[in-house]
Amino acid sequence: MILSAGRGERMRPLTDRCPKPLLEVDGRPLIEHQIRRLVAAGWPEIVINLGWLGETLETALGDGARLGARLFYSPEGWPALETGGGISHALPLLGPEPFLVVNGDVWCDTDFRQLELGREDLACLLLVDNPAHNPGGDFALRDGRVETAGEPRLTFAGIGLYHPELFADAPPGAWPLAPRLRDAVSAGRVAGIHHTGEWVDVGTPDRLEQLNRKLSSL
């Protein structure tokens, strides 16, 4: 699943008429890079949730065939359902097996196949070195297990493999995923991987411009 329903407030005015996942990175929409990477990793069936300017996103991507994917859409209307509510709303499309979720506004060169769940795990999170906009990090990582306290601190990359059980008894409507993830971490049921390659939270016009400059120089 690619989370794509948000308004992109920090990206305004670029997102006033264009959903953030369609902003171009290295000559093509950010979400197309994500779809291609997911397909290459063996995840061709992808759910995309729709909120802000969702019809624009669906029109641009269609059924995904030209990208080697099969796309399914989970309309939420507006306002959208936040991360937890959006995933929970899409569960009928995602099915009973563990599924990968990627924030629609991240650029990352990870191989999604490295994310794996242990027997009792509810989630496996990709963690990265702390960017300037999140210097305190979100979690610690020790021996492949995510912990709420400890050093060094790392930042959640917005990429995770989740077991549907994580969303058991989820409330209807909009709700954030972070508190439920932290509960699972506290219960010792979350694995983690430290990704040391490229990762950018493409959350502001400045970061978008910096990423384009970097990629154009490669």
Describe the structure.
With 218 residues, the chain is α/β, with parallel strands linked by helices. The chain has one domain (2-216): Spore Coat Polysaccharide Biosynthesis Protein SpsA, Chain A. Helix content is 24%, strand content 27%. The chain is built from 6 helices and 13 strands. The protein has helices spanning 30-40, 54-61, 82-89, 91-94, 178-186, 205-216; strands spanning 2-3, 24-25, 28-29, 45-50, 70-75, 99-103, 106-108, 123-128, 139-142, 145-147, 153-162, 190-195, 199-201. Strands 1, 6, 8, 9, 10, 11 and 12 form a 7-stranded mixed beta sheet that branches. Strands 2-3 form a two-stranded antiparallel sheet. Strand 2 and strand 3 form a beta hairpin. The longest helix is centred in the last third of the chain and has 12 residues, at 205-216. The two termini are 29 Å apart. The model has no long low-confidence stretch (mean pLDDT 94).
- Major sheet attributes: 7 strands, mixed
- Please state the overall shape, judged from the principal axes of the Cα atoms: globular
Low-confidence stretches: none
CATH homologous superfamily descriptor:
Spore Coat Polysaccharide Biosynthesis Protein SpsA, Chain A
Query: Could you say what the CATH topology is called?
Result: Spore Coat Polysaccharide Biosynthesis Protein SpsA, Chain A
Q: Report the average pLDDT across residues.
A: 94
The helical percent reads 10-25%
Helix-strand topology string: EEEHEHEHHEEEEEEHEEH
- Helical region count? 6
Q: Which CATH architecture is right?
A: Alpha-Beta Complex
Number of domains: 1
Class from helix and strand fractions: alpha/beta
Give the radius of gyration. Answer: 17 Å
Number of DSSP strand runs: 13
